[in-house]
Design a protein that fits this description.
The structure is a homodimer. By secondary structure, chain A is of the alpha+beta class. Chain A has two domains: 264 residues, BirA Bifunctional Protein, domain 2 (2-Layer Sandwich), CATH 3.30.930; 32 residues, no CATH class. Helix content of chain A is 36%, strand content 26%. Chain A is built from eleven helices and 14 strands. Chain A has a seven-stranded mixed sheet with strand order 3-8-9-14-12-11-10. In chain A, helix 3 packs across helix 10. The first copy, chain A, is globular and about 60 Å long. Chain A starts with a helix and ends with a helix. The relative contact order of chain A is 0.16. At the A-B interface, strand 2, helix 3, strand 3, strand 4 and helix 4 of A face strand 2, helix 3, strand 3, strand 4 and helix 4 of B.
Chain lengths: 306, 306
């Protein structure tokens, strides 16, 4: 059988997970309910991340999955990834407009096309709300913030590893270049300890973001050449292809310039973040060890305290 | 001093929480970051809810904070609460439209007004994704589902107890009328045990939803007269006014008709839900016992396993 035909007939991992009851279909590609067991596995993996991160005593903050427009506009996300945004819109009418709205729904028309933009967009990455908090001069030791939230990326897909809404646990470090780079290197070691504990067949690679448009390819090349983005990849949706499960990003002065973040010595600050894709890590564990969690290898079950 | 003047000069509870570092301002009313301690308190309160709910062995599901449009349209939310909706929109252009978009951002124009509606809206209540899962004939014992998610309500407010994004932990019961009503009565007792454990000065009342428009007042009256909505209220933003922290709703056949849910005997099903406002319960605890958690009364600290 030709490889393409094999790929076409192999069941989608997403469908296997739904069949098993670990995910619940909602009719929208990339939007799923999670079973109690799936959530429990995800939380146990996250607890390992918490333990690895606790050494540095980060400032823990939890933001809801929406971001104020002002921060979003300043962040530069619109320059690079307009295709992934989700903006939030609301109805501002009265009784008359309400009747028109209900008629549009009944007729199967695009009933929210005229809704007005609200003050928020869906959070595209868990770290974004932290940058405006750091405006001004950083303390001598810099800042270290631990965030976790649902994130939205508008990329409808049948790939279980490419959800439109997923959780990202991130650590954000701000300081001077040396501090920030040394911190990222330390996390590279910790991240490998995590994937080892999960028994994943993972590898590290230099990577780039999915920049938009014709200029995007140049930006991606530049990002690769400077090794700004490192990823730890593992099989998620398919046994044969690798998907990023952890990402370690050095932003140089990108966010510091946009949010006026200054290092202790008065120079423009540098930032970096380490992001854990919690759904992807969880899916990678099921992919590697099978859908029956009770049969997972003993060291793995021990690591998860199962 | 006249009461109105006193109200005008008293600090907002929201500002006290921000000052203390328990909440983080984002520039958008009703959208806050939560400190590690705030989250920890919220999770400990939620663990009490879990313990109360575990007796019935619910089916645990966790949905992301977006809902597919089809379910949303069928739910009837648009009829009653169009003013609270948040729809999600996305950019569909190419390089040329991207340049226009960036120019609009630079000029301070409404850059997302032309974005196209996506297949999702923000979840208005945690229970909504469960109804299409129950389409068809229910098992003899009915269904009982445990859900928890961030929910969105477009009502920008400085009232700490009226957030635009907040978490709701809900139990959803489906079956015949007698089953569903007996279950709600049982939860009324449990809900009182929860507010007692938290030491809240709470009371129960018959309530109504904030229905939209001129017809809304009639709907609210009808809901009250039939005692379809019960609430447990406690001081949240102000010591003197009460805000619902728990809501117990009997939907009669509303959702069953819209989603084709049939009881075991072939009749149209009935549903009810019990919803816990996790941020409101947490805020009510800080309101009642003060912002210094270490000084909370011993029985309360014991209930939270602090």
């Amino acid at each position: 059988m030709a490889p393409s035909a094999a790929a076409a007939t192999a069941p989608l991992f997403r469908d296997e997970l739904i069949e098993r009851g670990l995910l619940v279909a909602t009719g929208v590609p990339g939007v799923y309910g999670r079973s109690g067991e799936f959530e429990d596995t995800l939380m146990r993996i996250d607890r390992i991340i918490d333990t690895l991160g606790a050494h540095d005593e980060p400032e823990v903050l939890r933001f809801p999955p929406v971001l104020d427009r002002q921060t979003f506009e300043r962040s530069g996300f619109l320059d690079s990834f307009p295709h992934l945004i989700g903006t939030v819109h609301a109805f501002g009418g009265r009784d008359r407009e309400h009747r028109d709205l209900l008629r549009a729904v009944e007729n199967g028309a695009q009933w929210s096309a005229q809704f007005a933009p609200t003050a928020v967009v869906l959070t595209p990455a868990a770290c974004y709300p932290t940058y405006p908090m750091m405006t001004g001069r950083l303390p001598r030791a810099g800042r270290l913030i631990d965030v976790l939230s649902y994130c939205f990326r508008h990329e409808p897909s049948d790939d279980a590893g490419r959800m439109q809404m997923f959780r990202m646990h991130e650590y954000v470090r701000a300081g001077n270049a040396a501090t920030v780079l040394a911190w990222r290197t330390r996390w590279l070691g910790r991240a490998k300890r995590l994937v080892d504990a999960l028994g994943l067949a993972a590898r590290t690679d230099v990577a780039s973001d999915p920049f938009f448009g014709r200029a995007g390819a140049l930006l991606a090349d530049s990002q690769r050449n400077q090794q700004l983005k490192l990823e730890i990849l593992a099989p998620v949706a398919n046994p044969a292809t690798l998907t990023a499960v952890i990402s370690l990003n050095y932003h140089q002065t990108h966010f510091a310039e946009r949010f006026g973040i200054t290092a202790d010595d008065g120079a423009t600050g540098h930032t970096a973040c380490v992001g854990f894709g919690l759904e992807r890590l969880t899916l990678a564990a099921y992919r590697r060890h099978g859908l029956d969690r009770k049969r997972w290898p003993a060291p793995m079950r021990e690591a998860l305290d199962l």
